Amino acid sequence: MQNCSKCGKCVTLHEKSIKNVISNTFLALQLHKKVHMFDRKIIVRLKQWLAKEDRKPLMMLGARQVGKTSVLKRFGKECFEHCAYFSLDEEDGVCDIFRKTKNPKQVIEQLSFLTDVPILPGKTLLILDEIQECPEAITAMKYFCEQAPTYCVACAGSLLGLAFGHGGFSFPVGKVDHLEMYPVSFSEFLEQKDANLYRYYQSIQGFDAIPEVFFDRLSQAFMAYRISGGMPEAAMKMLNLDRAGVETVLKNILRDYSFDFVKHATPQLANRISYVWNSLPSQLAKENRKFIYQLVRPGARAREYEDALTWLKNAGLLYKVSLCATPRLPLKSYEDLSIFKIYCLDIGLLRVLAEMDADIYLSDNPGFKEFKGALAENYVLQSMVTQGVNCSRYWSSGNKAEVEFIIQHASQVIPIEVKSGTSVTGKSLIEYNKKYSPELRVRFSMLNMKKDDNFINMPLFMADRFADLVLSNEEQH
């Protein structure tokens, strides 16, 4: 059945041979030289920031260890004559400077004594890393914006545990530019893994079936990505054939996050944050994935753990997807914030947090079915967020049907269903279509590309192309 991935009506070729996928992937990887750094798409947005006439100091925010520092250093090297880097976490003397003065001229003068790099307006990128450790430095960006706009200042941080408005400092509202950074996407991973395959991936312009030879190779690359996820160090270990290293890196990141809970929250809140975080796998293992406080801790109540959920969300470690039982515009007016699901910032971290070995992806164990579906949903959400698509709502009709995500685009609501494999027997998207007759409905699965009237099926590995293939086409029509 060589044509299965094209027609989608029977078991696919790569599903039959799935136990060879990872070994084939590593064999393919061996044909490429050792790689050291990803080409991150966010560099393009950094260059756009640099070119702005009304440029303000930049706040690059994101979860810990998604690669903010390395990207900013690379940007500084590529686009400036000089790059002056300061970590406000490691170098207490730098924080002292901002505690004593907010005057940009004095700050620059004193920073210059701590580096051999000249700090010049327009010629030097001044990087202030771990900005969350020094709220006074954040406040100082107001004065850089107003009094020293020719200096190029980029701050990197996560804003963990900050309480602005207290202690004499405040966030410089309207005085900074913002840029969110996320884990490495599948397309960024693919570009490093196989440049030719990446060029083919980017060349896809419609919804015709992908030829088998490319479909299988993309499936194999996607399998590798699902194992490592998008945390840069783990993904790089995967590309460099270090499976054990992938596990070690991901476990270390999770351990570092647990230290952050203690460092940036009160002891009571830190305990609650930890309970919520560690309950994530059990929350997603259920069929309907609805967040249940009793799974956090027996006897847990909403009012006790709301702050913990908010803390994790603000830190960029999890996403909340709220119920919207009435998919009308604007969706925000119809969402039920009391009923929601939570997902992890990265599928690699989620797998390790659930204590699952990478080989579980090769398992046909029916007991893994629900969590395999959760990982697929988490991946689609992760990909959408990177593209700037708001996937913070889902639709449910009691116990009859549920669509994983609904998004608002222009004047329409687009339902998005997610299936982890080639079995697409669920009727939720059909039920949604009967009730609301949407202009467009989308399903992600491991079946091939297909468009039929208002229905589009996209392979999971094509999620990174959703915005330009689906949303851009809708805008043109």
| Count of DSSP-assigned helices | 20
What separation lies between the terminal Cα atoms?
A: 37 Å
Shape: globular
How much is the radius of gyration in Å? 23 Å
Q: What portion of the residues fall into strands of 2 or more residues?
A: 15-25%
The structural class is alpha/beta
Give a structural overview.
The protein is of the alpha/beta class. It has 20 helices and 14 strands. The chain has helices at residues 4-7, 13-16, 21-29, 42-51, 68-79, 92-100, 104-112, 135-147, 186-193, 195-203, 212-228, 232-239, 243-264, 267-278, 280-284, 302-314, 347-353, 369-386, 428-436, 466-476, and strands at residues 58-61, 82-87, 124-129, 152-157, 177-180, 318-323, 336-344, 393-397, 401-403, 405-409, 412-418, 441-445, 450-452, 455-459.
Keywords, separated by commas or semicolons:
alpha/beta, 44% helix, 16% strand, 477 residues, 20 helices
